[in-house]
Specification:
The protein has 12 helices and no strands.
């Protein structure tokens, strides 16, 4: 039986589409209505304010990330840094490929979160899970798993930005396989260091 998506899910997806394609200023109630072919005022029925719409879109993004990670996570946690690096690199590839829209939308919505602690917290945790990173670093033997997890997430945030917008994106003339190996190697080296020093 096919799963029918709710109107709220459709609205949140349309909001993310608009933000990814046109920046945060493109995300409006009328824009979502037009995107979905809904009568004017339909989106505001569900989310009265723009902030409520942005907050719902961020929560939707977090839910998507959790579902994707849960589906991809192995039944047994990685036992070595090499295994962990391969798992994480695969997740980053999904973010930079199939979920590129989500990455672009997240960056676009950062302007909305600049003066709003709740939105900022939501954006900060919508792609990477601190509890999951902490559990991983603990399983790999880090003496301070929480600190190591924060450092790992900082690395991953930097890699995502670099491959999406940074120097690696500007110089993207290497093969997909080269990019994958670069991700895997960078992550493994960092995890090796964090597992020893943190």
């Amino acid at each position: 039986m096919s799963h029918r998506r709710s109107r709220r899910d459709l609205i949140c997806d349309a909001a993310l589409d608009l933000a990814a394609e046109g920046g945060n200023h493109a995300l409006t109630h009328q824009g979502v209505d037009a995107r979905l072919g809904l009568p004017r005022g339909s989106t505001s029925y569900y989310y009265r304010t723009r902030r409520a719409l942005v907050s719902a879109a961020i929560a939707h993004l977090t839910c998507r990330s959790s579902e994707q990670f849960r589906d991809a996570a192995p039944s047994v946690p990685p036992k070595t840094t090499r295994e962990a690096a391969s798992l994480i690199a695969a997740q980053l590839e999904v973010l930079l490929g199939d979920r590129r829209r989500d990455v672009l939308a997240r960056y676009a919505l950062m302007a909305d979160a600049a003066g709003d602690d709740e939105l900022r917290e939501g954006l900060a945790s919508c792609l990477f899970s601190f509890p999951a990173a902490t559990a991983l670093m603990d399983s790999l033997g880090a003496s301070d798993p929480a600190s190591a997890a924060r450092d790992l997430i900082t690395l991953l945030e930097g890699l995502v930005f670099d491959f999406a917008f940074g120097a690696r994106k500007l110089g993207a003339d290497s093969s997909h396989a080269d990019g994958t190996e670069t991700l895997r190697t960078s992550i493994r080296l960092w995890i090796d260091a964090l597992a020893v020093t943190k």
